[in-house]
Write the structure tokens for this entry.
Amino acid sequence: MQAKSHKDLIVWQRAMSLVKAVYMLTEKFPSREIYGLASQMRRAAVSIPSNISEGRNRGTAKDFAHFLRMAYGSSAELETQIEISNQLGFVDGSQIHEANTLLVEVSKMLRAMISKLG
């Protein structure tokens, strides 16, 4: 059964959970980073479900695949930013576990969907 709305897509639902995890993670950052790395991470995270929904609602498989690729690019960007925050000591390993787990899950789902759509 095909999803009627982007909200029915499991990848969109998991990406929304990722956004929440990133917001919770970045709340722990030093206040000096609110307009720096924290802001960049939040924008990258929000971009993932946003691109999924925009692509799903464009109507063609080609457009959907294009926006899934953009979402996948944002997931790669976020992966790097999470690692930067870890290396800078803004968070510890246990704090990034949930975000990383969700990020890996969403990235794999996006890759599979992109492969299927071509």
